[in-house]
Design goal:
The chain has seven helices and twelve strands. It has about 180 residues and is of the alpha/beta class. It has one domain. Strand 3, helix 3 and strand 4 form a beta-alpha-beta unit. Helix 5 packs across helix 6. It is globular and about 35 Å long.
Length: about 180
């Protein structure tokens, strides 16, 4: 549905919030619900609490994990396909439904879950926390608010593909007022 163009890659390396190395401190600073993106982040958060939604792909830094994350704390498990550097329709739909659900949900991604941070910020309610890994640095805590959602919607519109349909799947209103669709 959306593909990351090479021109946007460098821009996505900047953290969308403060970086933590201590899961307890991150948890104490977070709002609800918590959406965890990535295996290592999910494992760290599970040491203090179960996120409302977690996305895992069995890898860290594109290398398979020796020991997979324990998924037993989650109530529901969904499997989706999402190739590297993309956001598939299946991932977007499943993520939006999981955020709206009242059950702890893990989404197991066949492919790559790295970009799921962006749609998670758009789909999550204000005050929620989206946590993702900053390689070799720590865990980024992105608190969802109107400004951050607007920034991320604008980033999504700069990806290749059907931006309007993607934003509709995430429950985001028409963004023509706050950013230009390409």
């Amino acid at each position: 549905m959306l593909t990351l163009p090479r021109s946007l890659r460098a821009e996505l390396k900047e953290p969308l919030g403060p970086v933590y190395t201590d899961p307890q401190a991150l948890f104490e600073a977070s709002g609800t619900p918590i959406v965890a993106v990535g295996d290592v982040v999910t494992e760290h958060l599970l040491s203090v609490a179960t996120p409302a939604v977690a996305l895992v792909d069995g890898q860290t830094k594109r290398t398979p994990l020796d020991t997979p994350v324990d998924l037993t704390p989650f109530d529901r498990k969904h499997a989706v396909e999402n190739p590297a550097a993309t956001l598939s329709r299946e991932l977007l739909e499943t993520l939006a439904q999981a955020i709206d659900a009242n059950e702890r949900t893990v989404i197991v991604v066949d492919g790559e879950e790295d970009l799921a941070t962006l749609p998670a910020i758009v789909a999550a309610p204000p005050g929620a926390s989206v946590v993702y890994g900053q390689p070799d640095v720590g865990m980024v805590l992105a608190t969802v608010d109107e400004r951050r959602q607007s920034t991320v919607r604008e980033l999504l519109t700069r990806m290749d593909g059907d931006h309007e349909a993607a934003l509709r799947l995430l429950g985001s209103p028409d963004t023509s007022d706050d950013c230009e669709l390409q």
